[in-house]
Amino acid sequence: MKSITVFCGSSLGRIEEYKNDASLLGRTLAKNNSTLVYGGAKIGLMGAVANACIESGGKAIGVIPKFLQKKEVVHDGLHELIVVNTMHERKQKMFELCDGFIALAGGMGTFEELFEILTWAQLGRHKKPIGILNTNNYYDELLQFLNKAVQDKFVRENNLELFVVSNNVNDLLVKMERYTPPPLPRWMNSN
Known about the structure:
Elements: E1 3-7, H1 16-31, E2 35-38, H2 44-55, E3 60-65, E4 80-84, H3 87-96, E5 100-103, H4 108-122, E6 130-133, H5 140-151, E7 164-166, H6 169-177, H7 186-189
Parallel strand pairs: 1-2, 1-5, 2-3, 3-4, 5-6, 6-7
Helix pairs in contact: 1-2
């Protein structure tokens, strides 16, 4: 994958492990010559992944909406900063620039970005791999909830194949490289 969009928190979280994994991902992307595409901030896990990527000789592209473009938040050491008008434009641009997605620990924005890109995959709008880095089992309850949604017939079981999960950066990237999207339902393939 030549470029990966990373969704993650603007906070560092409760324990050091979150920052350590974000930094490891940044270093690994640089080592693999994969461009980092992310939200453009210098704070939290966003800053950690970008700093590690840049310090390791990698390329980092930030995409940020105008209303978040504050000097104390925007990363000023990026190879490219793309300023857009809205959050919707931000997600669209991050989608256009990447070959795959990784969600690290984060809050509402991270969840929203992850679920929107999963929804696009579910609807056949893309076939890019989506990875969830489950640092410190952060996403365990979410994964349990998705299984409940399958049991209660609100989510198709093969939609759980739209993403891969690992608590290890290298393992997650291998799973993403090997990813094959599940088939779309027949009704979506008909014109």
